[in-house]
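Data follows
____________
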Amino acid sequence: MDVTWQISFSPLVSNGLLTVAIVLAVTLIIVSLWRRGAGAWWRIIAYAALVIALLNPAALREDREPVTDVAVLVVDRSQSNTLKDRTSLTDATADALRTSLEAETGLDVREVDVTDALSMTQTSDSGGTQLFSAIENAIGDVPPERLAGIIAVTDGQIHDLAPRALATTGAPFHALLTGSPDEADRILTIEDAPRFAIVGESITLKLRVDDRGSTAGPVPADIILHVDGEPLPPVTVTTGITQEIEIELEHGGENVIEIEAAAGPSEITLENNRAVAIANGIRDRLRVLLVSGEPHAGERTWRNLLKADPAVDLVHFTILRPPEKQDGTPINELSLIAFPTRELFSVKLQEFDLVIFDRYRRRGVLPVSYLQNVANYVDNGGALLMAAGPDFASPFSIFRTPLAGVLPAAPTGEVIAQGYYPLVTDIGQRHPVTSGLPGAEQSPPNWGRWFRLIDSEQASGNTLMEGPGEKPLMVLDRVGEGRVAQLLSDHAWLWTRGYEGGGPQAEMLRRLAHWLMKEPDLEEEKLQARAQGNTLSIARQTMGEDVPPVTVTKPDGTTQEVRLAEEGPGLFTARMEIDQMGLYRLDDGTQTAITAAGPLNPKEFADVRVTDTQVAELVAETKGSTRYLADTDIPTIRRIRPGRNASGSDWIGLNANSEYAVRAVSEHTLIRPEFALLIALGAFMLAWRREGR
């Protein structure tokens, strides 16, 4: 505790009157000295005593306690500052500075570790190294007069702006950069990438490869492309020039496009030689061919369901008047426009995304060759849905055509007519088409009954739903490159009409149609991953009873094995904490997945060269210093008076502010006003006496 004394004044009159009195006293003193009267000096003493009486002086005692200054040590722990030997250089510098700072008396050291801003969505453009925000948080409760200085150990890749308040504190900012100023690195940048595109059409990516820090001119650079992990033909671009690349999307949903540039002549890291774009594939319009047989109550259900979707182009082939019908209708009243049967079932069949046969039977309208075309269409990757009615069990069954080669269930000729609840089988509980259907979790299911089932023998595929006696009701199969589904009842329309509460017909048929058209989200075997914030969520869909562990490859190349736990029938999940931005690759031996953590092309790797660009202005305004640690030794610490030179060849300075806190104050009057008046009166009397002689 320090004790200090100082003179204080508590005037007895206002400042205006006090000023008048002082001016008057000084004037009278000057007049007395000019006239050189015998009592001039006594008059001066009298006037001075009167002024002192008005000033009312006192001795002020303060008990002061010194207050420590605050120094901030900021250590950059971002991913860009872990490249090459920057981690070891950062640790060594931070340890040396910490030791020096702790040895200083009267100095409070606050250390701040700055990491990447990883907790963000993939579409976010924020993040990176928020160094100045971390500094603001660290000194938010520190008065500017107590701040000794800020020392930042960083690579200079900072992605927020220095606030003006830091430049006005008077404390020096020292940047110790973990590298050298002549580094070079190759960087790949995606300048433009569409987020949505039509399936089957090409999208145009604009990208650029730069050899930053290199003195060489433009050179060729090889580009390697992958879509969902599948390689595409490589292309060659020229560095320093924005160029366009076209890529075709083959499926709906997320398409992860990986672009990688070959290593350049000088590299700090290959991480920024890679970039990712995610394009969501959407189908322009789904072309569906609905082939209806005899009119029935469920025919309108199919038509309404398909027509309700604006993305569906429906071609409805229905037979209202079979050729054998003879009812005497005059020829001039019959339509003379022939239905384009050949175009639909021969020329343009491959253009359809889905073909549906609804209670169709052989009637001599479609030649056998056209039905063979449909079977070939399935083998070549097409989708076929057959909704069966009693006709399927008749001698005119469509099964007695070339379509029998692609249908998984053969009719026995029997039609079961009784009320029953459609039940989801054990396999159906695991299959994405029927898993989790609303109402299926109860027993009996919370939906209405059906009253007809076409008995059949299953030869292949999976039975997802069954009727009475465990007879197949919904059977799915893969044939060649295509897919087939059989619905062995024509009573699905009862759910649409709300009979006995109805049922999830729309959801079931929507899933069924999308599975037939190979939507990735409805695949039986799939591995999915999604990074959100600092968590990686993993989901494995399977038809099996168990799944192998998943190997996760992190952006830095290290791997981690993750075991999944069963969350529901056919669904296994896991979560893991992540601490790196970039691509995570997952593989369980049979299935693979790719996802990106943080922004798709993070700022942290946009440029990884050590630079003073972001700190130069602040360093100049605070009279601090910048040092490249690859070229110089770690500086020592000195305390300096505020405003003095804050750096030397081998040292950096921190302000010694000498601030204090007053703990106690006492006041002692030096001369009472009454006593001063007596002195003035006595001096005037002596002056008159001298002048009277």
Notes: Residues 398 and 404 are 8 Å apart (CA to CA).
